[in-house]
């Protein structure tokens, strides 16, 4: 799905701002049929949970309702009019006045509807959006809703970040011609000094297609006619990690010799390949340094914020990071566009986190619950997971910064049932995009020899916490155990290995002359131990610390005001580990 853009043939109205807001318990049975009777207003984009001082709103389980009046620009007569929601966590419904126009399940990918027949240029309409935060065993991510003895609904889930909900990204009204560009797929290659751009343009309506390529200065460097084809760029400038160069592909729809629609798409020419135990970008070995991150800030929750976007990337540049993983869901499109422009490499991940019902029992010694079964992860869960993969790749396939798809984080891959669940999903991801490697992120309870699915994937991404959850405080034992396991993976598969999570909870300002857990000194010593091991493993191609910054989680006995594994605090102040990482990453040669 193409992101709406303002062009010579399209116009765009951002509907961000304050909307009327109400919980379903106060909104009535059909809140879209009239003006919401509520004193509350909520900003878009933002999660709603932390905005108010009412715990009933923060802890609400079920639907909430957003509403505002929207005027269609009077100059849009004769155009198609569409409404797009960038994300509604975890399900959304959109109403134009009394009419339902679209509904969608999946909290981190966009959806839209053509509303031309329901609105009039120059006039207003009532726009109502319902958002449902409930998770079940058949959603991605999974969860469960229970009702206690007092009749209160409670949402439980297995992912270790707070279940923020609402309209966390922008809402748009846009116009487009009836005959228009609906989708573009770009695949790039290199032939000597030339860049090769394969393209496919999908259109609405009967029309011809023309494609032009412009360089960064706006000069035309290639053209082609037809909805599918190939364009060569002589003396191409490659998109490189840390040295982004973007061309612009302009797709034009032509009727009777006249351009009736135009859509510009930023593209980067680069190749990605796994060869033996190496990860190659443009034919050169690439070593990942960076983080697992979260879309998480105080008050806004998962609400996208351009100021935090810029500041976070500046901190990554300062620390020497060249990459991040979109743990554990697709991030806002603005984040990937920024990575495209600034040469930051991205591992793009679906929202399939928590597909492991045994993880809590495994960590805390409680009962082990099977992950796969009729009332747990089942065929309908797999169908939702497949749809999440389709929507992720459809949205992000043209970003040069995206070099690999991660289809799940820490699933229960050590049981036999994981194989029939994941094998068709891995096949689907390859069919949708044969040009990028695929991976999943392995949990430490499924080590080499126990894991059942790693042979299906191109890169071994491991989350390991030797020295924290196991060998706590004993870094000597942790170092030996970590190295032994990594050498086992290397011997068994001969594939590139990335440590996608390793970290230790650290309270900023907690110090000791001894390297004790929870102190800043221990976090530094813990990271140093991991790095010594990484540097001894030939197949190692990357290290992404967990986490970039402290983030909010559900209330629990192992979390005090959230997860504290960040090397920056939640408000982006550096801990000692940030300076230690900067010293390593700005000097690292692999």
Description of the molecule:
This protein is α+β, with helices and mostly antiparallel strands and 590 residues long. It has three domains: 11-176, Jelly Rolls (Sandwich), CATH 2.60.120; 180-270, Immunoglobulins (Immunoglobulin-like); 273-585, Glycosidases (TIM Barrel). The protein contains ten helices and 32 strands. The strands form eight sheets. The chain has an eight-stranded parallel β-barrel, surrounded by five helices. α3 packs parallel to α4 (333-342). The longest helix is centred in the last third of the chain and has 19 residues, at 475-493. The model has no long low-confidence stretch (mean pLDDT 95).
Can you tell me the CATH class of the largest domain?
Answer: Alpha Beta
Q: CATH-wise, what's the superfamily of the largest domain?
A: Glycosidases
General form: globular
Q: What share of the residues does DSSP label as strand, in percent?
A: 25-35%
Runs in which pLDDT lies below 50 for 5 or more consecutive residues are none
Alpha carbon gyration radius: 24 Å
Counting DSSP H or I runs of 4 or more residues, the number of helices is: 10
Q: Which architecture of the largest domain does the CATH hierarchy give at level 2?
A: Alpha-Beta Barrel
Q: How many structural domains are formed by the residues?
A: 3
| Strand runs, count | 32
Estimate the helix proportion, in percent: 10-25%
Distance between the termini: 37 Å
The name CATH uses for the topology of the largest domain is: TIM Barrel
Q: Give the neighbour order of strands across the main sheet.
A: 25-26-27-28-29-30-31-32
Tell me the major beta sheet: 8 strands, parallel, barrel
Mean pLDDT score, rounded? 95
EC number: 3.2.1.31
InterPro entries: Beta-gal/glucu_dom_sf, Galactose-bd-like_sf, GH, Glyco_hydro_2, Glyco_hydro_2_AS, Glyco_hydro_2_cat, Glyco_hydro_2_CS, Glyco_hydro_2_N
Protein name: Beta-glucuronidase
Keywords: Glycosidase, Hydrolase
């Amino acid at each position: 799905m193409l992101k709406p853009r303002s062009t010579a043939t399209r116009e765009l109205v951002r509907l961000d701002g304050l909307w009327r807001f109400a919980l379903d318990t106060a909104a009535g049975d059909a809140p879209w049929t009239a003006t919401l009777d509520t004193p509350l207003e909520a900003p878009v984009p933002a999660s709603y949970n932390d905005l108010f001082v009412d715990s009933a709103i923060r802890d609400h389980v079920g639907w909430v309702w957003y509403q505002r009046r929207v005027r269609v620009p009077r100059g849009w007569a004769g155009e198609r009019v569409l409404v797009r929601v960038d994300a509604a966590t975890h399900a959304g419904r959109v109403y134009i006045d009394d009419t339902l126009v679209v509904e969608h399940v999946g909290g981190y990918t966009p959806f839209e509807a053509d509303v031309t027949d329901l609105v009039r240029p120059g006039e207003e309409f009532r726009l109502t959006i319902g958002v449902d935060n409930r998770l079940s065993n058949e959603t991605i991510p999974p969860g469960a809703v229970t009702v206690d003895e007092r009749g209160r609904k409670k949402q439980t889930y297995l992912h270790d970040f707070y279940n923020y909900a609402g309209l966390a990204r922008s809402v748009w009204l846009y116009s487009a011609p009836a005959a228009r560009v609906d989708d573009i797929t770009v695949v790039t290659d290199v032939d000597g000094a030339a860049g090769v751009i394969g393209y496919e343009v999908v259109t609405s309506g009967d029309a011809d297609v023309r494609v032009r390529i412009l360089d960064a200065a706006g000069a035309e460097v290639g053209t082609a006619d037809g909805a599918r084809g190939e364009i060569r760029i002589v003396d191409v400038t490659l998109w490189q990690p840390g040295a982004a160069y973007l061309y612009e592909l302009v797709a034009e729809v032509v009727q009777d010799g006249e351009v009736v629609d135009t859509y510009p798409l930023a593209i980067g020419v680069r190749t990605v390949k796994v060869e033996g135990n190496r990860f190659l970008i443009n034919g050169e070995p690439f070593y990942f340094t960076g983080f697992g991150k979260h879309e998480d800030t105080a008050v806004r929750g998962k609400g996208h914020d351009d100021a935090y976007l810029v500041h976070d990337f500046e901190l990554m540049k300062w620390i020497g990071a060249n990459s991040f993983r979109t743990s554990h869901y697709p991030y806002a499109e603005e984040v990937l566009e920024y990575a495209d422009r600034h040469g930051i490499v991205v591992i793009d991940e679906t929202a399939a986190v928590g597909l492991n019902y045994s993880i809590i029992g495994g960590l805390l010694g409680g009962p082990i619950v099977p992950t796969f079964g009729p009332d747990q992860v089942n065929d309908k869960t797999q169908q939702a997971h497949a749809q999440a993969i389709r929507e992720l790749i459809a949205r992000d396939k043209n970003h040069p910064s995206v070099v690999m798809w991660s289809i799940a984080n820490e699933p229960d891959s050590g049981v036999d049932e994981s194989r029939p669940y994941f094998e068709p999903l891995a096949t689907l991801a390859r069919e949708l995009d044969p040009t990028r490697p695929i991976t999943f992120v392995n949990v430490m309870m499924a080590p080499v020899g126990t894991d059942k699915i790693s042979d299906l994937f191109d890169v071994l991404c491991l989350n390991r916490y030797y020295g924290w959850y196991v060998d706590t405080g004993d870094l000597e034992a942790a170092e030996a155990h970590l190295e032994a396991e990594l050498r086992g993976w290397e011997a068994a598969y001969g594939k590139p290995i990335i440590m996608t999570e390793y970290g230790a909870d650290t309270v900023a300002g907690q110090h000791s002359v001894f390297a004790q857990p929870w102190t800043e000194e221990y976090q530094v010593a813990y990271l140093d131990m991991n790095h010594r091991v990484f540097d001894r493993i030939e197949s190692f191609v990357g290290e992404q610390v967990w986490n970039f910054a402290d983030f909010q989680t559900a209330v629990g006995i192992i979390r005090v005001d959230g997860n504290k594994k960040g090397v920056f605090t939640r408000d982006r102040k550096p801990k000692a580990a940030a300076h230690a990482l900067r010293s390593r990453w700005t000097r690292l040669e692999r």
